[in-house]
Design brief:
Elements lengths: L14 H12 L13 E10 L4 E10 L5 E10 L9 H13 L8 E5 L11 H9 L3 E5 L17 E6 L2 E7 L8 E7 L3 H10 L8 H11 L2
Parallel strand pairs: 1-4, 4-5
Antiparallel strand pairs: 1-2, 2-3, 5-8, 6-7, 7-8
Helix pairs in contact: 2-3
């Protein structure tokens, strides 16, 4: 399937240029709910092979709300961007976009393994991918990149705002009792409250949403 990109830019750039591009792209993010009916949700994850020389991206599409697998795409590309914290989308997204081209149809919502707005320049991988494809997107991080927060009650669905420089950049969300919370942030075309709601709707008995769990399996172990 041909993938239409709302924004296009080169990937073979210096880290300094990539930072400037993030700042510019972040100005175009939509942080309110602007989408239609959600019938499919996709998980996006990236792994590496050959000591980091090959980027392996997986996109899995699940029916919503049943969360049954409908489609998947896997792509391997040579890794061309160095590992630089805060610039991982420049390293990973070329393979993700190639994996998305293998899908029969695009999903209605993307859940990315990583951050979105909860990023120093407000353009983590979820925001970057959502903006390029114009698909609503959510960042679901297992670890904190930046920000501070209060303790989260040990109750499923409890959350606290993740703060940076006086701004709410995400939510620290307890998806299961007795386990560490995850870090949810908007990617593009939805609000934080909506992002939390869809992450919880995609989470069953595990800590991570089914989209993330299945995409990780395809990206790392298949």
């Amino acid at each position: 399937m041909a993938l239409y990109l709302q924004y296009k830019h080169p990937w073979d750039v210096s880290p300094a240029t990539a930072i400037a591009m993030q700042v510019e792209l972040s100005r175009h993010l939509i942080t309110t709910d602007q989408f239609g009916e959600i019938e499919t949700v996709a998980g996006v994850d990236v792994g590496f092979e050959q000591a980091g020389g090959i980027t392996r991206a997986a996109v899995v599409v699940l029916d919503f709300p049943s969360l049954k697998l409908k489609d998947s795409g896997i792509a391997r590309l040579p890794t061309r961007f160095p590992y630089v914290p805060g610039l991982l989308s420049f390293r990973e997204l070329p393979a993700v976009l190639a994996a998305m081209e293998q899908l029969q149809r695009l999903p209605d919502l993307l859940l990315c393994d990583g951050h979105g707005y909860a990023h120093p320049r407000r353009l983590g991988i979820a925001s970057h991918l959502g903006l390029l494809t114009n698909i609503p997107a959510i960042g679901v991080g297992k670890t904190r990149l930046l920000g501070t927060h209060a303790a989260v009650a040990d109750v499923r669905g409890a959350w606290q705002p993740l703060m940076d420089k006086g701004e709410i950049i995400g939510a620290v969300l307890r998806t299961r009792r007795g386990v560490k919370p995850i870090y949810v942030s908007i990617g593009h075309r939805l609000s934080l409250a909506t992002a939390i709601r869809y992450v919880m709707a995609c989470t069953t008995r595990y800590k991570l949403p089914e989209t993330t769990r299945l995409a990780h399996r395809y990206a790392s172990h298949r």
